[in-house]
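Help wanted!
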Amino acid sequence: MEKKTVVVVDAMGGDNAPVEIVKGAVDAVNKSDKVQVILTGIEDQVRAELAKYTYPEDRISVLHASEVITTEEAPAFAIKKKKDSSIVVGQKLLKTGEADAFVSAGSTGAVLVGGVLVAGRIRGIERTPLGTLIPTETGVALLVDSGANADCRPSHLVQFAQMGSVYMEHVVGVKNPRVSIVNIGVEEEKGNALVKETFPLLKECPNINFTGSIEAREIPHGAADVIVCDGFTGNVILKLYEGTASTLVHVIKGGLKSSLRSKIGGLLIKPALKSTLKKFDASQYGGAPMLGLNGLVVKTHGSATANEVCNSIIQCITFKEQGINDKIRALLGRDAAKKGSESDKTGKEEA
Amino acid sequence: MEKKTVVVVDAMGGDNAPVEIVKGAVDAVNKSDKVQVILTGIEDQVRAELAKYTYPEDRISVLHASEVITTEEAPAFAIKKKKDSSIVVGQKLLKTGEADAFVSAGSTGAVLVGGVLVAGRIRGIERTPLGTLIPTETGVALLVDSGANADCRPSHLVQFAQMGSVYMEHVVGVKNPRVSIVNIGVEEEKGNALVKETFPLLKECPNINFTGSIEAREIPHGAADVIVCDGFTGNVILKLYEGTASTLVHVIKGGLKSSLRSKIGGLLIKPALKSTLKKFDASQYGGAPMLGLNGLVVKTHGSATANEVCNSIIQCITFKEQGINDKIRALLGRDAAKKGSESDKTGKEEA
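Answered by r_m:
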């Protein structure tokens, strides 16, 4: 029998914890027999929720963690101070190898900082980006880095491109994914200093399908599968994407109330509009993977409900079964590195 | 009698030149008696277009320029090489003071480079940003820099905030405009290195109404009047804004064809949808001003038709009558500067 994928789930993270988180975990083990879940959090509360459901009881265990990190706390400080928090207790299992993946709807900052400080980076990885799957007209694209590293160097972006490419190909299933760098023009000489330095490195990178620059206006059309940028730019893109879409929908809905004629029309189009907009709802695509760590860290929306938590857990199975981290190690881990990388100097942060 | 605003118009720039450009100039002088237009370009062609219309002939003159800079040419090279192009000939009149403003639908790069090299910066201005008016749910906001300077320093962003503030207050008419810096969180400690360094400078800046950070998702809601960022980030925002809106409208229209019911509904809502989306059409707001130059340089869309050209010419009257450049000089020109700025070393680029 194949070894199950062990997923630690932060039962205390997010707006709907622990109710929706525990429900999502139960749904996941009922849906797939390939997964084993460990819920970290305040044991009484977690068990009280679990008691509501029927599920194979040997497939969910509870690991007590007495503390909870809130979104108000400074991430680095909270991770260092709250050693018995559900995030730290959970991510430790990635470092020791007792678990394959960690899923949380909690503080994004704490999950990211914990990923580096507690789970630890794969040797040779300089920075660990957050990859977010964003909906496009033709499917879905991975935006990497979507917010973990506000300041980046060219070598970081090259690693983002490589890891993102492995993820899109082997987890999402896009063959030979098109990798583009976010730019303000398509010509090679365009861009800021970071992009100008990174462009030739991506062009020379042998193990990706680099298709050049992508202007932000082309992103929604689905012009690339892996969209590479620094975490500041990526976060601006991600949030503007959500903001523009929701504002436009709001404005259109408001406009439909302007006359009786449009009101009637609005009622008639409601079902079609709803199903169309669902395509553009990012929460359909589960959580955002943080790449380059020991194990997989998945950050789901703070507002995640059981369905998104369940999808995020299931997505970890593919990650494990496809041996994504082995592929990343082979491509760009320290064993593959020709020259020492910056992480040589920061061994403390590694496993 | 008040002195007229003299606007040089690049008759050869843009997809619809010279036809729509000349028509826009004619419309402008017919609409307002406060403006005097000088059309630069190939004289025969320009006069042939002018011959089609009735207008006060003493209010439009033609200044022959034998060369045309195309969008395919490298901007800096083209500006240096084509001394008799409509852009260079036109912008020279800003430097000599013979004209107050220059309007072009031609190559953005060439117009921007020409602005600095030919028209010249106001003494004390370190970088001249492009400000684009973007539609929001509640009105309009000035995005500055929307693409002129891909790499910026904190002192540049502070000047962008000050100039943008003057423009919004005195040209657009927003009293005490709210100035925000684009960031990936609202807390002061958030951001990349540039934003973290700029934030305290904006906070201390006495002559702007700084309201802190703005997350990209809040931009469409109209949470700020002046949105400050480096030109790389600004260009990404501008293009994603356009791209997301047009994609979403396209997807919604497609979705409405999915059933007979939604098709009928679609027909009923068409007028309301059209007027709603017009609010989100950037071309309604005329051209993008390039701030901090001798005179005003306005870049209109490459696809500009007569209406946008006319609006852009009219907008120059307010700029002149409100004495925007005098206000900028008083606020942050060299006379106002306490310490020598970088532009001290690059006097060649100045008037």
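OP: Thanks! One thing I noticed: The two ends of chain A are 29 Å apart (CA to CA).
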